[in-house]
Amino acid sequence: MAATTITEEALAPVPQIVAHRVEPEPRGWTSWVTTTDHKRIGIMYMVLTFVFFLLGGTEALLMRLQLSQANNTLLDPKTYNELFTMHGTTMIFLFVVPMMAGFANYFIPLMIGARDMAFPKLNALSFWLLLAGGIVFYGSIFFNPPECGWTCYPPLSSRSYLPNGGVDAWIFLIHLTGLSSLLGAINFYATIANMRAPGMGWGRLPLFVWTILTYSILLILALPVIAGAVTMLLTDRHFGTHFFDASNGGSPLLWQHLFWFFGHPEVYIMVLPGFGIISEVLPVFARKPIFGYKAVAAATVLIAFLGLLVWAHHMFATPSPTFVFVFFMLGSFLIAVPTGVKIFNWVATLWRGTIEYKTALLFCVGFIGTFLIGGITGVFLAVFPVDWQLTDTYFVVAHLHYVIMGGAVFGIFAGIYYWFPKITGRLLSEGLGKLSFWLVLVGFHVTFLVQHSMGLDGMPRRVYEYADVGHLELYNLISTIGSFILATGVLVTVVNVLRSVKRGAIAGPDPWKANTLEWFTTSPPPVNNFDVIPRVRSVEPMKDIRRQVERQMEPAEALPAPTAESAVRA
Amino acid sequence: MNRIRRALARTPATSRSRQLAAAVLLALALVLVLAGPAFADAISPESGGSPNADEIDSLYKLILAIAVVVFVGVEGALFYSLFKFRARKGAVAAQIRGNTRLEVGWTVGAALILVVLAAFTFAKLSSIRNPPNSGPNGLQLADGVLVAAGPSKPLPPNGKSLNVCVNGQQYIWRYTYANDCANAPLTSVFSYQEMVVPVDTTVTLDINAQDVAHSWWIPKLGGKFDAVPGYTNHTWFKVPAKHVNEVFTGQCAELCGRNHANMTAQVRAVSPADFERWLAQRRADIKAADAAAAQERKRIEQQTP
User: Fold this and answer.
1) Which of A181, A469, A482, B222 is the most buried (most CB within 10 A)?
2) Interatomic CA distance for residues A333 and A317, integer angstroms
3) Whether B261 and A466 lie within 8 Å, measured CB to CB
C-alpha cells in the first residue's frame, strides 16, 4: 500500500507555479474601487454610463415637455439652452462612446481568448477619468451649466458672451473623457493586436472586435484634435489668446473645422461598435453565418477611413467656396456605399435562416429598419443645396437621432439582452424584454419621424419656443407623446435588469448557442476568464467546439450534456 | 375549398391577430390618404418665394423619389425575410457564407444610385447658386448705388442686382441697402428686422455677423447662410411678381444665445414703385432723425457749461 502511494506521488506532475499564499477573492466596495479586472471595470462602465443615459433622457423629456405646446413658458430660455447642451454632451461623451468602451472592456478579452486587457491598470484609470469627467460636468448644475450646445461654437462660447464657468466645465469634461477614451483606445488596440487566442488570425477576428479595433483607431486619430481645440478655447477664454476671435485676426470657422474633424469620426465611433454588436447577434439568432464576413469587416474599415474625410458636410451653410462643398458632398456619398453594403449583408444574413425571435434579435432588426432611415436622410443632407434648407432644423435633429439612436442605442440594447446572461449568469425576462422593445421602437418613431416634418416646416433646432404656424404644434405634441412612450420602454428594461440580476433564470455558459469564445467559459466568467484557451480554427470557434463535442458524444448518448470544458479536455 | 378549410382550421388567435393587423394597416393607409393634402408641407422643404428655393425643392423631390424606392426595397426585403424565415419546426438554416457576385452587384448598384444623385445635383447647381437677371417688371436699377459689382460673389449675368448687407446681431437682423458692404456710406438706407424688396428683382445678400454666429434663413426664399464674424457669406433671391405685397418670414438658424428663438426676420415684397417710395421715405426719415439727434446734442452741449 505504502509503496504504491509513494510511486503515485513521484509520478504526479510537478506544478510549475507554487502558490505560497492564496489570497481570498476580494469582496465589498473597496474591491470595486481597486479592481483592475477588465470584467469588473466593464460592469462599472456599463452601470455608470447607463445612469448618464437616464440623466440625458430626463433632460430630453424636460425639453419635449417645454415644446409640447407653442409659446410654452414651462422653462426659461437659459434653462432650455442648458438642457440641450447637457443632453447632447451627456449622450455622446458620457453614454454612447463609454458604453461601447464598457462592452469592449468586458467582451474583447473574452472574445479573443485573453485573460485580461493588455494594460489592466491603465484600464482602471480610463474608467476613473470618465467618472471624473462626469462629475466635473454635472457639478456645473450647482453653478452655471454650459449653454452653448454640444458643439460650443465660438464666439458664443467665448468669455465675452458666456462668461460663467459652464463652458469651462464642458472643456474639462472633453479633456477628461477624451483622455479616458484615448487611453482606453490604446489599450483595446494593444489587446487586440497582441493577445488573441492561438489560431485567431485577422480573418477569424469576431466582427465586434473588428469594429472595436476601428473604433480605437478613430479615437486615437480624432481625439487629439478636439483636445487641442478645447485647449485653444480655454486659452482664448482665460489667457488672452485669439484663436477664434475674428476681431483680433482669429477665425470662428477654425473651431468648426477642428470640432467637426473630430465630430464626424465621432459619429462612426458611436455607431461602428453598434454595427459590430448587430453583426454578432444576427447570425446567432438566424442560425446562419454572417453573410460576407470579409465584406462586413472591410466596410467597417472603409467607413472609418472615409469618415475622416467628410467633416465639412456639417458646415455647408458657412461662408466657404463651392468646390469645398462639392468635395465633401461626394465624400459623404461615398460613405453611403459601404454603409449600404453592411445593411444588405445583414438582410442577406437573415435570408434563408431560421430566425428565433429573442429580444436581442428584435433590437437588431429594429436597428436595421431604423438606421436605414437615418442613412437615407443622410443622403439628403449630403446634397449641399438641399442641406441649405435642412441644416440646423429639426430635420437634422431627426436624422441624427435616427443614426445615433438607431445605430448605437438599439445596438446597445441588443448587446444588453444578448450579453446580460454572460455577465450575470442569469437570463433577462423575454416578456419584459419584448415589451421594452416594442415601446422603444414605437416611441422612437413617434418621437422622431414627425421631427423631419417640423424641420421641413421651418422649425430650427435649439429653440426654446415656437409660434403655432403650420402644423408645428401638432407635430410637437406628437413628438412629446412619443418621447414618453420611448422613456417607458427604457424603464421597462431597467426594471427587467434589476429584477433579473437576482431572480432571472440561470443561463448556463452558452444559452444562445452562440459563435464566439466568450460563451466558452462559465457565466459569469471566473477571474482568469479561461482555464484553457482553445485553439481557434474558424470565425465561429464555438460552433466548431460544439460540433466536436457532438461527434465525441455520439456513441454514449446517455451521458449528461457536454460542457465546453469537456470538449477541450477531449 | 381546401384553402378555406385550412383557414378555418387555423387557431382563432392567429386569425384574430391577422385581422387586427389588417385593420391597423387599413386605418393607417386611410389616415395617410386623408392627411396627404392637409399636410403637404410635411414631406418637402418650403418653396414658392424664389427660383432657388423652388429648385432646391425639386432637387429634394428627385432625391425623395429615389429614396422611397431604396427604402421600400430594403425594408421590404427585411420584413419579407423576418416573416418568411421564422424558425419553424424542421426548418434548417442554409449555411451560406457569402456570394462575391452579389456583393459586387450591390456595391456597384449603390454607387450607381449615388452617381445619378450627383448628376442631378450638378445639373441643378448653377440655377440654385447663380442669380439670374432681374425680370422686366423688376426695379430698373438706374440708381448706381444699388447695383452690385465685384468678382467676390456670384452676380446675375448682366451684373445688376439690388444688393443688401445683412448683419446678424444678438438678437436682430440689420439690413443696409448698399453696394459695397465694408465701405457702406453712412447715409445708406437701413432697416431692422423687416427687409423691404421689390418683386421680380434679383436681390443679392452680403451676410455677416457683428457679435456671435447667426444664420440667415427665410425658408420660402431659399436655404440658410451662416453669418460668421470675420466672414461674408452670399446668397440671393428673386420674388416673382405675383407675390407682390407678401411677407416672407424666417428666423435665425444658428444658436446665438438665450433669445435665439426670437431672432426673427421678415422680407416684404413690394412693387418697384412702392420700393422706391419706401426708399425715399426711409432716406428722409433717417435724415430727419440725424438732424434731430444733432440738435439734441447741441442742446445738451449748451446746457453743460
Assistant:
1) B222
2) 18
3) yes
Give CA–CA dist A488/A496, Å, rounded.
12
Query: Residue B114 and residue B158: Cα distance in Å, rounded?
Result: 35
CA of A245 to nearest chain B CA: how many angstroms apart? 8
Distance CA A540, CA A8 (A): 41
Tell whether A243 lies on the interface with B, counting CB pairs under 8 A: no
Question: Which amino acid is located at A343 in the chain?
Answer: I
CA angle B278, B280, B282 (to 5 degrees): 65
Report the DSSP pairing between strands B194-198 and B264-270: parallel
| Alpha carbon distance B168, A45 (integer Å) | 44
B53–chain A Cβ distance below 8 A for any pair: yes
**By three-state DSSP, how is residue B165 classified?**
strand
Query: Considering only residues 159 to 178 of chain A, which have any Cβ-Cβ distance to chain B shorter than 8 Å?
Result: 161
- Whether the CB of B75 is below 8 Å from some CB of chain A: the reply is yes
Closest residue in B to A285 (Cα) is B87
> Are A319 and B231 inside 8 Å of each other by CB?
yes
CA distance A372 to A369: 5
Q: How far apart are CA B278 and CA B194, in angstroms?
A: 12
Local structure of residue A518 (DSSP, 8 states): G
Chain B closest CA to A140's CA: distance in Å?
18
- Say if residues A458 and A393 touch (Cβ distance below 8 Å): yes
CA A467, A468, A469 angle in degrees (round to 5)?
100
* Amino acid letter for position A444: F
pTM of the model: 0.90
Residue A506 has phi, psi (to 5 degrees) of -65, 130
Show the cell assigned to A179: 483622455
Mean pLDDT by 10 residues, chain A (570 residues): 50 59 76 93 97 97 97 95 97 97 97 95 97 97 94 95 94 97 97 96 96 97 97 96 94 96 96 97 95 96 96 95 94 95 96 95 96 96 96 97 94 97 96 97 96 94 93 95 97 97 94 95 92 92 91 65 52
Q: Are B195 and B268 in contact (CB under 8 A)?
A: yes
What grid cell was written down for B293? 439727434
Q: Could you count the other beta carbons within 10 Å of the beta carbon of residue A309?
A: 16
C-alpha to C-alpha distance for A91 and A121, rounded to whole angstroms = 26
Instruction: Please give the Cα distance from A427 to A399 (Å, whole number).
Output: 34
Rg of chain A over CA atoms, in angstroms? 25
N residues, chain B: 305
Eight-class DSSP state of A248: G
Cis peptide upstream of residue A155 (ω within 30 degrees of 0): yes
A318 in B contact zone (CB under 8 Å)? yes
Burial, A360: exposed, middle or buried (Cβ in 10 Å; 0-12, 13-18, 19+)?
Answer: buried
